[in-house]
């Protein structure tokens, strides 16, 4: 399972750690998010140890979503050393995401 | 019995036959509007197709976005509103599976035979090619595939990028209409140069549909073949419609009396008794088309002879067969 970011663990797991973090903002009722979910799952396994890849449920964790001004889902943020370095909105392919992650590793 | 089925490269049509005949005999004189005409051709062609060749084309649901006041309410996802009490709109992404570049030769020879609205048959090569191109674009638009248009004579005059919107379609139609309305004399062809340029400037693995009579100067023929090879080298799927007035240009069917022949591209004139040259002309033309056909076969380019008096079925059919093959 991909890592679950929450309002409470976000600071220490995504912001305070060095390296790349990939955050997928999603909701249960969102169809396109369900398309992205298995891709995020696969990427989290493939990049284990190199990057932390996980999901944020926007309904359960409104603070994080608000902090980054998330108005569309799915939105995927790539953070490097706590700073946003890339953003993707909408469905996409695994290859596109993998290329983006690679470019920031 | 299916009304339409593909078996290799053969396509069989059943009752739509009569429908197409109607269209082919349609008096196109009064229908100046290319858009309407293209629609007629396409609708007539696809009515009665038992197996739809258009499945799999759709717009893809890409994301949910928070609704902003003033936005169109049509796209609000009401199920999500019922569940979460939040207003979200659905955003879609057009799914384009194909990019198709339609390449049109607009050299002066394409304006053969010279016609006016009062002529018995108001069709010449450029009018035929423009209408065929418009019909293909209509079909592509229906399938949500992207299409672009390139028009060349001595150089590439118009070259548009591939898009699938209605506005783009209309713009392309105005280019075609201008071609028909404003014939230009003494414009020679440089198909090889144009094709090289087009091959480099479009996305790889596009479909390229060429309408041309392929009339080049003698020594240019080899260059033309190398340009066709270039298209294939860039992994494009190519269909070449060799647009001809078959009875005149291939079979040289003129009455046996003196004629003044004028080269539409150079203006050169020659007086001849048609029977004096018929045999040699027919032989030379057969040799040229034979070579063109052979080269196309070698480069795996679909070569289709498009006689302007035979209607558009051949054109649409060839395109659909190629399209079906590309999907596999």
**Count of alpha and pi helical runs of chain A:** 4
Instruction: Please give the largest β-sheet of chain B.
Output: 6 strands, mixed
Oligomer: heterodimer
Listing every helix as H and every strand as E from the N terminus to the C terminus, the arrangement of chain A reads: EHEHEHEEEH
| SSE ordering of chain B | EEHHEHEEHEEHHEHEHEEHEH
Spatial strand order of the main sheet of chain A: 1-3-2-5-6
Report the structural category of chain B. Answer: alpha/beta
State the end-to-end CA separation of chain A: 22 Å
Kindly state the percentage of residues in helix of chain A: 25-40%
Basic shape of chain B: elongated
How would you describe what is shown here?
The complex is a heterodimer of chains A (105) and B (328). Chain A is of the alpha/beta class and 105 residues long. Helix content of chain A is 37%, strand content 30%. Chain A has four helices and six strands; from the N terminus they run E-H-E-H-E-H-E-E-E-H. Chain A has a five-stranded mixed sheet with strand order 1-3-2-5-6. The two termini of chain A are 22 Å apart. The model of chain A has no long low-confidence stretch (mean pLDDT 90). In chain B, helix 4 runs antiparallel to helix 5 and helix 6 (191-201) runs parallel beside helix 7. The longest helix of chain B is centred in the C-terminal third of the chain and has 25 residues, at 274-298. With 328 residues, chain B is α/β, with parallel strands linked by helices. In chain B, strands 7-6-5-8-9-12 form a six-stranded mixed sheet, sandwiched between helices. A two-stranded antiparallel ribbon of chain B has the order 1-2. A two-stranded antiparallel ribbon of chain B has the order 3-4.
Summarize the structure.
The complex is a heterodimer of chains A (105) and B (328). With 105 residues, chain A is an alpha/beta fold.
């Amino acid at each position: 399972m991909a890592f679950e970011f929450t309002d409470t663990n976000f600071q220490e797991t995504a912001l305070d750690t060095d390296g790349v973090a990939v955050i997928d903002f999603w909701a249960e009722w969102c169809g396109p998010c369900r398309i992205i979910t298995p891709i995020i799952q696969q990427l989290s396994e493939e990049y284990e140890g190199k990057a932390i890849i996980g999901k944020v449920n926007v309904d359960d964790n409104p603070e994080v979503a608000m902090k980054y001004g998330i108005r569309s889902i799915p939105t995927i943020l790539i953070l490097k050393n706590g700073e946003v370095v890339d953003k993707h909105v909408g469905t996409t392919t695994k290859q596109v995401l993998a290329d983006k992650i690679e470019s920031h590793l | 019995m299916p009304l339409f089925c593909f078996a290799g490269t053969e396509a069989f049509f059943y009752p739509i036959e009569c429908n197409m005949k109607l269209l082919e005999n349609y008096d196109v004189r009064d229908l100046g509007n290319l858009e309407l005409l293209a629609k007629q051709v396409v609708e007539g062609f696809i009515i009665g197709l038992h197996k739809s060749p258009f499945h799999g084309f759709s717009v893809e649901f890409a994301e949910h976005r928070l609704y902003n006041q003033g936005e169109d309410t049509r796209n609000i996802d009401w199920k999500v509103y019922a569940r979460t009490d939040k207003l979200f709109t659905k955003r879609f992404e057009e799914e384009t599976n194909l990019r198709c570049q339609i390449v049109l030769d607009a050299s002066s020879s394409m304006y053969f035979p010279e016609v006016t609205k009062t002529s018995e048959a108001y069709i010449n090569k450029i009018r035929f090619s423009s209408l065929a191109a418009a019909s293909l674009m209509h079909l592509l638009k229906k399938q949500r595939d992207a299409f672009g248009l390139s028009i060349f004579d001595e150089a590439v005059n118009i070259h548009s990028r591939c898009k699938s919107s209605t506005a783009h379609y209309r713009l392309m139609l105005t280019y075609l209409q201008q071609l028909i309305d404003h014939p230009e004399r003494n414009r020679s062809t440089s198909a090889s140069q144009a094709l090289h340029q087009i091959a480099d400037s479009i996305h790889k693995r596009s479909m390229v549909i060429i309408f041309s009579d392929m009339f080049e100067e003698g020594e240019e023929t080899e260059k033309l073949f190398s340009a066709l090879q270039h298209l294939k080298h860039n992994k494009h799927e190519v269909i070449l419609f060799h647009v001809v007035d078959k009875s005149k240009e291939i079979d040289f069917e003129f009455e046996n009396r003196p004629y003044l022949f004028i080269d539409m591209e150079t203006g050169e004139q020659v007086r001849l008794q048609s029977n004096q040259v018929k045999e040699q002309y027919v032989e030379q033309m057969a040799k040229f088309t034979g070579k063109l056909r052979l080269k196309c076969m070698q480069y795996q380019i679909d070569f289709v002879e498009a006689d302007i008096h035979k209607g558009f079925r051949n054109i649409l059919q060839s395109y659909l067969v190629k399209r079906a093959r590309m999907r596999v």
